[in-house]
Amino acid sequence: MAERELTDLLRHLKTNPSADYASTSALLSRAKLLLLQLNALTPSTPSAASTTPPHLLALARETYEQGALASIRAKNPDAFTRYVAQLRPFYEQQQQQTGGSSEGGERNKITGLYLLLLLTQGLYGEFHSELEALAATAAGITTAPPAGASARGSAGGGAATLGGRRPSVDVEGDRYLGYPIRLERWLMEGSYDRVWKAMKKGEVPCEEFGVFSEILTSQIRSEIASSSERAYPSLPLSSTKSLLFLESEGAVVEFARSRGWIVKDGQIYFPSTQETGEEEQEKDFSQMVIENTLGYARQLETIV
């Protein structure tokens, strides 16, 4: 029986999250064929001649959610984005039927991961569009998706109509949704020390969110390096190691060369530039960023 086989497949996927991606993809393909047999591959519209039973729609939603999580673990952002697009109509229907409740599913986790993906890709416009939709959902405001909206900017069904239902989404208070929101705010503030702390293994909401730590680490190093260049003519090699959270001075030298910095007598010299009035203000901000980050790095060294 197709329904029983699908249930068994989903149970296997949930209890074996560390399985290799090829095996998981094969199981997901089989699950989609079963959904097709059950006429549950996509949600039926209210005006359809026959509607799909809610329990089959829940199985379909779980299938796509497992596919999305597997894609993130495999570091396959394109596949993840496709699953987000497939999940959207299911979440919109769930929104209309339950007033936004995500009980029994992974909606907030998937949406939080999508926000984090947008953040690591530098898609800040799409990131803030998602936040606006989530905020509208939390406030119980009726909104409509923008014309031509694609998967990027439409994840999580945030733009679904609530029809005045009682809001049930605490955006910043949610462990999955709040995490990327806080990271984005700290990144914009230049509070890289707080981002470093949040990316520590014990601070991330779950395993899948940790996948993005390496990407964010690279981005933050680049931002700190740029701030260092604006703030100071040079820095000691040892301070730069702490500042960039690198494991050794050899790693610092390698990073310095990639940026065109000069390493001499235990000191790193940054390329000099002619400053304007606006750049002088940026210099003050950059110095504050560096001081905050260095302070956090020294605290870590003291603890160790």
Mean pLDDT: 79
Report Rg.
Answer: 23 Å
Q: Could you give the count of β-strands?
A: 3
How many angstroms separate the termini?
57 Å
User: Strand count, sense and closure of the main sheet?
Assistant: 3 strands, antiparallel
Secondary-structure-derived class: mainly alpha
Give the low-confidence spans. 142-168, 300-304
Number of discrete helical segments: 13
Keywords: Proteasome
Domain CSN8/PSMD8/EIF3K: 109-275
GO biological process, one term: proteasome-mediated ubiquitin-dependent protein catabolic process
Protein name: CSN8/PSMD8/EIF3K domain-containing protein
Model description:
It comes from Parathielavia hyrcaniae. One of its GO terms (cellular component) is proteasome regulatory particle, lid subcomplex. Keywords: Proteasome. Strand 2 and strand 3 form a beta hairpin. The protein has 304 residues and is mostly helical. Helix 1 runs antiparallel to helix 2 and helix 7 runs antiparallel to helix 8. It has a three-stranded antiparallel β-sheet with strand order 1-3-2. It has 13 helices and three strands. It is elongated and about 75 Å long.
What topology does this entry show?
Blueprint: H1 2-15, H2 21-37, H3 54-73, H4 77-98, H5 107-120, H6 124-139, H7 175-189, H8 192-198, H9 207-210, H10 213-231, E1 234-236, H11 237-243, H12 249-259, E2 262-264, E3 267-269, H13 277-303
Antiparallel strand pairs: 1-3, 2-3
